[in-house]
Amino acid sequence: METALAKTPQKRQVMFLAILLLLWEAGSEAVRYSIPEETESGYSVANLAKDLGLRVGELATRSARIHYKGDKELLQLDIKTGNLLLYEKLDREVMCGTTEPCILHFQLLLENPVQFYQTDLQLTDINDHSPEFPEREMLLKIPEGTQPGTVFPLKIAQDFDIGSNTVQNYTISSNSHFHVATHNRGDGRKYPELVLDKALDREERPELSLTLTALDGGAPPRSGTTTVRIVVLDNNDNAPEFLQSLYEVQVPENSPLNSLVVAVSARDLDAGAYGSVAYALFQGDEVTQPFVIDEKTGEIRLKRALDFEATPYYNVEIVATDGGGFSGKCTVAIEVMDVNDNAPELTMSTLSSPTPENAPETVVAVFSVSDPDSGDNGRMICSIQNDLPFLLKPTLKNFYTLVTQRALDRESQAEYNITITVTDLGTPRLKTEHNITVLVSDVNDNAPAFTQTSYTLFVRENNSPALHIGSVSATDRDSGTNAQVTYSLLPPQDPHLPLVSLVSINADNGHLFALRSLDYEALQEFEFRVGATDRGSPELSSEALVRVLVLDTNDNSPFVLYPLQNGSAPCTELVPRAAEPGYLVTKVVAVDGDSGQNAWLSYQLLKATEPGLFGVWAHNGEVRTARLLSERDAAKHRLVVLVKDNGEPPRSATATLHMLLVDGFSQPYLPLAEAAPAQAQADSLTVYLVVALASVSSLFLFSVLLFVAVRLCRRSRAASVGRRSVPEGPFPGHLVDVSGTGTLSQSYQYEVCLTGDSGTGEFKFLKPIIPNLLPQGAGEEIGKTAAFRNNFGLN
């Protein structure tokens, strides 16, 4: 019997070790439940069998039980129903202290076969603790005359609850001298400060007693109080001031006892007892604090061993008080460091750089890692950035290869800065970062690309040969010789375009030059294509369209069409003396071979025999009378009209007009050059008048007969003109009817043709249809006069 009993514990130990091994290798996810603290015992947390997908009867047959560290029985399993029951009340503050969240880890153990499930129980906080001050009374010594606004630190209240259930606000009993301000500390806790609102007078009131209340944020809220006794002292002008308001210190958890943590220092500008400073722990809780401070030197030393797992950091408040009762406060933030004193090491064995683009999976680097620490502190994991086209592949023990995940594109990214991070599994984790740069070598996989698909260049006519007229530019995303671009002219699509004699291109930079002087009137625009070829293997190329527009310059002077200025007999305009002011005498017609504003013409009267008698309209060249004519005005007048274009600089031409004032159009033409006696002139006029009347009568009858013939002829001519495809111009008709007004006493018809696309009125030909009805020479001159007068609105 004793032997059997002795063997039973050994079997249990073996079984427990086996279970631990299985627990180590298992990787199932934990089932988590949550209940408030202080829940009554026997409370059903959950149906564990249902949540884990187990049959209720299976719990009994497989000896299911709940295990918690330390063999504490906090939960129990009802194997009949599968319910997980609370064995006793759980106090979150006892179980976890200030740790949040408070999670208790349990394991469900099953036998036959051995299996385990991880179960977590989270305890949520309830407001079951009231704030408590460390002392029932606080003593403050404040000199009289202290300026309002002065702040005096107060000790905080302790509340073992967490979150909103801990201390949220401080208040003080109503008084006329002080109010309390609540502030947040670095660790989330709130602390009070007493603020002086009204100066104290020791003679009036040497001592005050106030009640400080701490309120938590629970529902309903809980509170705690303490008495603040204020003793009014005589003047002490300066309070101690620490050199730093916050001291941050890191202390290894294996630091020996009595080792120096940090030395704080405060100074007081007062002299004597008021200038001497004494240091103390402000909260005065030396039982829970593992530190002690020297009241004279301010050195904080370790009096009790630190435990990182129990308390990873401390916030210690230090107060410095002078002999007059003034004090200053600082905070010392102490972080307890876990011991993991060796960082991983990385040794690079091979590094291949540059790596060609467009290549499949390529080995870039081979390296090994090591860490002299043991356990989790010596286990390592390697990683690189997630946004890189590379992969880390483990090979032999602690050896890794860095390979490309896909084909690289140098044009997208020419180099990669890769950070290999080696991290151990210690606490805290230590890591080593190794930076490498991988360059990507170029392959000629991009053709040159012009900055524009088409270019438009502007060149003024009459340019000098070899003039730089513009540039084309192409870029190649490759590098080196693969990106060197050569430019060339491509054969023109128009075989009649002498491109090689018009422009040339610099093969290196794409500059375009005009080889000869261009004439706008001969060639207004032309286009061609240029090519860009790189020097890679194989060569890649592209092309772009270049359009050259020749800009007009003012290189043509106005040309006077009417009256003709060819040195022949001058044309004389007859003006009746009875003409009203504004009477249209004639019209100067001129054209300009240029275009645009260079062809805009203006007219002005340059010279006149009698200024003020005639005027010239500036925009259309119409010559009109400026006033009424009288018998005192001379019969003969000579006008010089200046025709000027709008170019820069402007060019001009002149037209000379001869005017003859007559009493009526029945008065014959008088040669102005003769100077006959008055009686001879009267006889000659009589003869001319008779001849003119007879001629007019005859011509009128003949004109009536010809009218019908002319109308028929006009229809046949219109059809023939349509077949000849005469270009359309601004004047629709081809026959001009000249009535017997102005300087003519007969009616004539002239055929007037304008050249196509002539916005300036260039005449192709001007020919009278009935030339034999007038004397030789006179018919042509009068015909031209009548035609221009009729076409340009002189009648």
TrEMBL record:
GO MF, one example: calcium ion binding
Keyword flag Transmembrane helix: yes
Membrane-topology annotation of the record: Single-pass type I membrane protein
Signal sequence interval, chain numbering: 1-30
Gene3D superfamilies linked to this entry: Cadherins
TM region positions: 687-710
Entry GO terms, CC: plasma membrane
Any single biological process term in GO: nervous system development
Pfam families with a match to the protein in the record: Cadherin (PF00028), Cadherin_2 (PF08266), Cadherin_C_2 (PF16492)
Protein name from the UniProt record: Protocadherin beta 5
Primary gene name: PCDHB5
